[in-house]
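Budget justification aside, the reviewers requested a transparent look at the raw inputs and outputs of the sequence design task funded under Objective 1. We therefore reproduce one unedited record. The lines immediately below are the structure tokens for a 353-residue chain.
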């Protein structure tokens, strides 16, 4: 009888803890990050110290990470364990590989972009097709995004000198360059574009691009014309994300703005003293927690439901690697169906409970 009573009490306590966790996780209670809930993967494919993680994207089941040193890796358990994609799985790969700068997933495709207009795409994260996005070559692709405008799948790429390109239906192309870029022309050495994101505003799919000198632009139809203006700042934007019916753009020196409708060029400034003047270098939206997650240039990670008030924590203890006297910083993020995964500039991969 005593054993049964202790067992019943234990079950009640477990149910209480579960309900308490569920309430904190799924209602509107502010989420406060804890570094103790994150773990370093033990089989990192990027050989900690030599392969910077430059981007991550997931399709719900498969998480793919790319690096500046040409490596593609995939995980089937949301970042706990990883396998490296062998070169023979990348059709028409370049002899010297691709220095990847970004990756995105959408509408059934992974798309990774890199230096000199080089790119690779895949439907399963295991088998890849490599090629060159003509309008971007020989400039570097710094960001990519996939979404839909109307019923048409659209692939977008952007990078150096204000170059913007898009393709419809397939990443094979043809790719079209914007006739006029709000970031300046190639001849005038336009501003670099560091971030792309896609989202639904009032039921309409639009792409947002952001970069140097406070410039933001949108693609709202299939004409390929990008519309844009400065968003009230001369600072550089480095990160974009869409969620909770809004876009958030962030960048240098504490720059954070949000827009409920980028088509009217209205961006509201966020000033959160907890983040101060930290430079934001990456941001993602976690649909499970219903929170945006950002990271800064000094390994601070912060959470916010609507992007106005942020709850930060310092993740330096999770990124302790060093090479040639350099301290590791967070360089990539993705939110899967079950975890938040962070990648580091020296190859470390960290996943949440």
């Amino acid at each position: 009888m005593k054993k049964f009573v202790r067992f019943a009490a234990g079950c009640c306590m477990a149910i209480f803890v579960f309900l308490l966790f569920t309430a904190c996780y799924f209602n509107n209670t502010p989420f406060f990050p804890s570094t103790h809930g994150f773990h370093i993967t033990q089989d990192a494919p990027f050989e900690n110290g030599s392969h910077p993680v430059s981007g991550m994207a997931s399709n719900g089941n498969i998480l793919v990470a790319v690096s500046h040193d040409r490596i593609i890796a995939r995980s089937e358990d949301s970042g706990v364990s990883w396998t490296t994609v062998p070169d023979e799985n990348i059709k028409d790969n370049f002899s010297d590989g691709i220095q990847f700068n970004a990756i995105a997933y959408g509408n059934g495709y992974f798309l990774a972009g890199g230096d000199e207009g080089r790119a690779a795409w895949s439907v399963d994260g295991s088998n890849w097709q490599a090629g060159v996005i003509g309008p971007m070559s020989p400039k570097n692709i710094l960001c990519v995004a996939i979404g839909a405008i109307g019923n048409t799948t659209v692939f977008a790429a952007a990078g150096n000198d204000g170059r913007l390109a898009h393709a419809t239906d397939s990443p094979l192309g043809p790719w079209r360059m914007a006739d006029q870029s709000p970031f300046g022309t190639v001849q005038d050495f336009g501003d670099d574009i560091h971030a792309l994101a896609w989202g639904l505003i009032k039921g309409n799919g639009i792409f947002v691009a952001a970069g140097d000198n406070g410039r933001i632009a949108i693609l709202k139809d299939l004409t390929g014309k990008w519309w844009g203006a400065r968003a009230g700042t001369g600072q550089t934007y480095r990160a974009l994300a869409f969620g909770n019916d809004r876009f958030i753009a962030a960048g240098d020196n504490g720059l954070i703005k949000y827009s409920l409708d980028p088509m009217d060029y209205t961006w509201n400034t966020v000033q959160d003293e907890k983040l101060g003047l930290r430079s934001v270098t990456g941001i993602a939206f976690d649909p499970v927690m219903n929170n945006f997650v950002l990271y800064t240039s000094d390994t601070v990670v912060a959470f916010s439901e609507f992007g106005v008030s942020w709850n930060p924590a310092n993740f330096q203890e999770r990124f302790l690697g060093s090479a040639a006297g350099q301290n590791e910083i967070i360089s990539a993020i993705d939110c899967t169906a079950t975890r938040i995964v962070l990648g580091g500039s020296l190859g470390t991969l960290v996943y949440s409970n």
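The helical segments are 2-26. Residues 2-26 form the longest helix (25 residues). Computational costs for records of this kind are itemized in the attached budget.
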